[in-house]
Structures are given as C-alpha cells and as structure tokens.
Write a structure and sequence with these properties.
Helix content: under 10%
Strand order of the largest sheet: 3-2-5
Shape: elongated
Largest sheet: 3 strands, antiparallel
C-alpha cells in the first residue's frame, strides 16, 4: 500500500459574483494553473474542484466573457 492511497482529496469551493452588481456569475471559468484543473460556475455562481494533491504556490484564475 502506498501513501498516495491513504491521502484524502482536497476540495476547493467558492462563489463568483460580479463586482459591480453583486450578482452571481453563471458560466465563469475557474482554473488552477499548476494543477491543470478547472471547472465552470453553476447557475448560482458556485464552483467545486477536487484535488488529489494540491501544488504549493498554485494560482487560481477566474475568467468570464460576457456581452450586453
């Protein structure tokens, strides 16, 4: 048995909101650069990422492209 099989996954969760309107952003991209893991926010702006082993110093990037 390796120590990897004993480690528990880490979870990263949050809610992305518009800075001006304070409304949740559906469809925003949430990405961890070094881990190369990403997801998209739900209808209520929430996201959830599961990481087997987080990388120290990783960078969280959030992007959203919209138009009026």
């Amino acid at each position: 048995m390796t120590t990897d099989s004993l480690s528990q996954p880490h979870e990263l969760t949050g809610t992305i909101i518009d800075a001006g309107t304070r409304q949740p952003l559906k469809g925003a991209n949430v990405y961890l650069v070094k881990s190369r893991r990403g997801t998209e926010t739900e209808e209520d702006g929430r996201f959830h990422l599961v990481l087997e082993s987080p990388i120290p110093g990783d960078t969280l990037v959030i992007s959203f492209v919209g138009y009026a």
